[in-house]
Every structure is written in structure tokens, then in C-alpha cells.
Amino acid sequence: MKKIKYLLWLIILGLLGILIYQNLDYFMTTRALKFDLKIASWNWTMPELQNIAYFGICFLLGLILVGIKGFVVKLRLKKEIKTKDAAVASLKEQVNTLKTELEVFQHDPYIKKELEEKTIVDLPVLDQPENDTEKGDKSDTAV
Which structural domain range is residue 39 located in? Predict the structure, then answer.
């Protein structure tokens, strides 16, 4: 799978290189970007750069923004993992205390006897369906 990924990235980079090479005159022209909010003091002009530099700056800004977002998500998930681990640890501790309490109750002869009586009384009695042999015996006497 890694080889396929590398091959896919090589194909994408190759196509990007072909695109830039075939349009080199467009990417190498210099332009100045202007930012005007129609207020006299809020007028800004960026120095002249090649178009490929603008593309590169936008690409790097995108990478930085995605990196910051990923970092924030990582921190949030790390905090969530810590809270979940604490909850699991407390539940494990509760299970262990309940097991020790159960062992105490099972080894106490009076409580053990009481538990056995409850299980014997609580067992449901299942109704047995009628057997076909009993019906057959009744029909044989009638013939």
C-alpha cells in the first residue's frame, strides 16, 4: 500500500511539474497585489512578486492553518483520552471492590445458605408439553 501511495504522489507531482513547465511564462510574470478599502489611509500594495510565489505563499499558509487545526484537535482528543482513562480506572476499581465484597458474602455460611435458598425458590417451573405417545395410547384403546 505504501508503494501505491508513493507512486500516486509521484504522479501528482509530475503532473504539477508539467503544468508549471508548460505555463512558465504565466508563473514567472510579476504582479503587484493591491488592497483598497476605499478609505484614504487604508490603502496597501504588496511588492511585485512572481505569480508562482503567490501560489507558494497561499500553499504554505494553507499548510500552516491545517497544522494548527490538527494540533488543536490533537490536544482536545488527548484531554478526552485522559478523562476516559480516568473513568475506566475508577470503574475497574469499583469492579474490584465489588468482587471482594462478593467473595466475602460467598464465604459467609449464613449468607451462602440464604443465597442458595433464594436460587432454589426462584427457579421457574416449566410446563412440559404433552407427549404423542400418551395420545397414541388413548387412540389405541378406542379402536
Answer: 20-122
In single-letter form, the type of residue at position 105 comes to F
Rounded to an integer, the average pLDDT of 5-10 is 94
Structure confidence by residue, pLDDT tens digits, 38-64: 887 788 888 898 999 999 999 999 999
Cell of 62: 494553507
Output the pLDDT for position 118.
Answer: 66
Q: Rounded CA gap, 72 and 79, in Å?
A: 11
* Number of domains the chain contains: 1
Beta strands 49-50 and 30-31 are: antiparallel
The CB-side HSE value for 9 (13 A sphere, CA atoms) comes to 5
Evaluate whether residue 92 is within a structural domain: yes
* 138 domain residue, yes or no: no
**Looking at the domain assignment, is residue 140 inside a domain?**
no
Taking the C-alpha atoms of residue 19 and residue 21, their distance in angstroms, rounded to an integer, is: 6
Question: Which amino acid type is present at position 109?
Answer: P
Does the predicted model carry a pTM greater than 0.85?
no
Contact between residue 35 and residue 44 where contact means Cβ atoms under 8 Å apart: yes
pLDDT score of 131 more than 70:
no
Domain presence at residue 136: no
